Amino acid sequence: MPNKGRPREFDRDAALHSAMLVFWRKGFLATSMNDLCEAMEIRAPSLYAAFGSKEDLYIEALRRYNGLAHQLIWDRIDGEPTVQEGVRRVLLAASEVLPEGQDTPSGCMVNLATMGHGPIGTAPDAVKAARLDGLKALRSGIERAVASGELPHGTDTERLSRFYMGVIQGMAVQAYDGANQEDLAGMAEAAMAAWPVK
């Protein structure tokens, strides 16, 4: 009879989620292995066996965070009658998600990685890729708006995409510093005033 090995003593998905919250709150450098083991409710050998190194765990946690960010923020660009309304919905969704919640830290794990929270080794490439995902979502929507005639054909789609990405990154930093949902929603509406008029 084949030996199936000892079953895992923890829920890997739940443990990864807990690790994501620790990295999000403290950043890569300030997070210790003890912090992770305590939050994940596992011992160091189990952590290494399941996830590899601290850096590997960070990258996996970052990918989990980015998937959630797409569901909660970036995917909203496609759910409205116009791209303009989609971008507004993205900004307003960010204003709801970025302030500290009952179970989540404030700010954005991806953007905080640029503020001394970031990792060393190969993980910075994963951080950069996660940031570019948001920019790509905005660029895709804005390019679609130009193609459909919603925006003027001379619109600089790269510049406009980077502008709205910069707004969201600024919202993340301000949320980290204590801005609330109303503050961030005001930023979102002010940013929408810059939407080009056809």
TrEMBL record:
Name the source's superkingdom.
Bacteria
Question: One Pfam family, short name please?
Answer: TetR_N
- Residue numbers of the DNA-binding region are 32-51
Alphabetically ordered keywords of this record: DNA-binding, Transcription, Transcription regulation
InterPro entries per record: Homeodomain-like_sf (IPR009057), HTH_TetR (IPR001647), Tet_transcr_reg_TetR-rel_C_sf (IPR036271)
DNA-binding keyword on record: yes
Where does the HTH tetR-type domain start and stop, copy by copy?
9-69
By what name is this protein known? TetR/AcrR family transcriptional regulator
Among Gene3D superfamilies, the record links this protein to: Homeodomain-like, Tetracycline Repressor, domain 2
